[in-house]
């Protein structure tokens, strides 16, 4: 009986450890404050691995939230403070059909009309945006985590005045909201 309990304890501990490994987080410091995103590598392994490449290579630092639409989302990671496009790794496979929904405070990969075009840009949902899910708009936009701390910083972004550029880009905060640090938390 003692051996069975100790084996069960070992198995439970191993499962808890592997779940903890899946629940990596990234803390972002911005010019408006900090927020933390918990990543879901179990349901979105390709998106999480891709996102972590940019965190680990340091290239999210100095980028801005370049598209903020109140009641919708805040998008960042692709442009520096001067709105110059940052270099990207190759595009990834869309994981929009992974069972995660574009709910309030979730983070997802931004992409073009090509489903498999996501690179470095991400967005954080300010509201439930079910119309972006695969079941409503195939193939959907891949959610890969959620904000677990500091969501009020994202909400504050949506209160800031925005502008449009002559090239057609819109909803750009007049005062750039810059990522000053991105830290992986295991």
TrEMBL record:
GO biological process: protein folding
Function: PPIases accelerate the folding of proteins. It catalyzes the cis-trans isomerization of proline imidic peptide bonds in oligopeptides.
EC number: 5.2.1.8
Keyword Iron appears in the UniProt entry: no
PANTHER family in the cross-refs: PEPTIDYL-PROLYL CIS-TRANS ISOMERASE CYP38, CHLOROPLASTIC
Ranges of residues in domain PPIase cyclophilin-type: 22-184
Pfam families the record matches: Pro_isomerase (PF00160)
Molecular function terms, GO-annotated: peptidyl-prolyl cis-trans isomerase activity
Keywords: Isomerase, Rotamase, Signal
Reactions that this protein is recorded to catalyse: [protein]-peptidylproline (omega=180) = [protein]-peptidylproline (omega=0)
Protein name: Peptidyl-prolyl cis-trans isomerase
Family: Belongs to the cyclophilin-type PPIase family.
Signal peptide feature range: 1-23
Top enzyme category: isomerase
């Amino acid at each position: 009986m003692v051996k069975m309990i100790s084996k069960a304890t070992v198995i439970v501990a191993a499962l808890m450890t592997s779940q903890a490994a899946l629940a990596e987080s990234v803390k972002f410091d911005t010019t408006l404050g900090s927020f933390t995103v918990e990543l879901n590598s179990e349901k979105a392994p390709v998106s999480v691995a891709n996102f972590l490449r940019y965190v680990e290579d340091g290239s999210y630092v100095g980028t801005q939230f370049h598209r903020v639409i109140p009641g919708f989302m805040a998008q960042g990671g692709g442009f520096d403070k001067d709105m110059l496009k940052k270099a990207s790794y190759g595009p990834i496979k869309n994981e929009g059909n992974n069972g995660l929904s574009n709910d309030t405070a979730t983070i997802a990969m931004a992409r073009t009309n090509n489903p498999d075009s996501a690179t470095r840009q991400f967005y954080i949902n300010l509201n439930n945006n079910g119309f972006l899910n695969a079941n409503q708009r195939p193939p959907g936009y891949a959610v890969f985590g959620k904000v677990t701390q500091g969501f009020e910083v994202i909400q504050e972004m949506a209160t800031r005045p925005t502008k449009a550029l002559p090239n057609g880009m819109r909803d750009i905060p007049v005062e750039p909201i810059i990522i000053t640090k991105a830290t992986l938390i295991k």
